[in-house]
Amino acid sequence: MAIFPKNFLWGGAVAANQCEGAYLADGKELNVTDVSVGLMNDPDLKWNPDNGRWEPDLKPEKVYLSHEGIDFFHRYKEDLALMGGMSFKAFRTSISWGRIFPNGDEEEPNEAGLLFYDRLFDEMLKNGMEPVITLSHYETPLHLVTEYGGWMDERLIGFWLRYVETVFKRYKDKVKYWLTFNEINNILRPGIGFAAGGILNIHPGDTSRPNADLTEQMIYQACHYIFVANAKTVKLCHEIIPTAKIGCMLSLSGLATYPYSCNPDDVMGVLEHQRKQYFFTDLMCRGHYPGYIKRIWQERGIEIKMKDGDLDIIRDYTVDYIGFSYYRSAVLKSGKAMKQDTGGSVGIDNPYLSGTSPEPWKWPIDPKGLRYICNLLTDRYNMPLFIVENGIGLDEMPDDNGKIHDDFRVSYTRDHLLQVEESIKDGCNIMGYLYWGPIDIVSAGTGEMRKRYGFVYVDRFNDGTGTLQRLKKDSYDWYRHVIETNGESLHE
Fold it and tell me: The whole model's pTM is what?
């Protein structure tokens, strides 16, 4: 019996900053991920005491792989043909804001950047794929961050709306599915807020490290401006493209956090940890600030500046669907610190899981965690869900015969898709499944090529060498067969 709907959006997902390269081509200027090697590291900025500004400080000894990526900017026709060869129904990528408004605060857009995405979306449609487009995927123009402090300045809302109105009007006949801010809840994670939320303290007391003295007050204020921008973006999208759907995008692996025991402290600890994720979906899906966050603000002396009408716009323009990523689950024990990696939360080892991904990352493999999240979100919001990131990074090379036998990836993906199927049986309204990194791209977290997710191998290495040749892995034909049978082959 067919479980996946006929219109299920099978496909894959990438991000402009991890694949495009050509980081200063056609008038583009630097963005936040152009000045760092991975999200987990400090950005390469230096404090200029003469003008009281943070400035780029790119290191000649470093390899910034994202500057060339996998050269998708020049090879997108070849790469999209490979995706079409797997019978993709949808392909997710992002528009690099800096290609459209290089510094972010210009009055007029950059036509060369607009033309690139015209050609890119046309090619997706030619290959039978619906474009699923993220408006901001760790790509805030650097000038907006070093000049204004990014989203800690209310003026960002106006710059942002000029950008999104421009792309909505330009691509209204080509793009039906939009996402606002990628994994925006990562703005609360230490060290990642610079890239995830585009925030920087431009009047620091400590100039030894960028964002060394960010406060909760600053971060929550930036969140409020982002919530207002998100709601106004939904409003604009519905006005300019009435047939389009626009969603939020969150990193929700943290929802799959289990209590270590039935100790009430463990259970309450999980509830509080999950609320760090729900804070964003509650605002973007329910349209109001929940009581638990008001308590945090009151107890910590946080006062958010809000304009008249802000709460009304947040209430009236909620998103159409929830897009999210899921990679791993975690176990929380009261009194033990919860750490973070690029896959999500990291707590106590879970002895009930069958294993982990291979060295060096060793993420716990928990397909049922995906079903758990789908049901949590359905019970809380009763909204369509779109799994826009799920996948496994492996350290792999072609063998002597030029083949890559990635059975582990096939097993991982099959097991997760079977839990998506169970979620649909549970009554979850799931729009689609987009495997993360269907072609090898630069890792967001560590800025390296060694962590390969793709069904397609790209010959590029951490030192920047490589031919950029593309090579299909065994998983390529497997995933194609899954899509062509609409999931029925998962039971073969």
Answer: 0.97
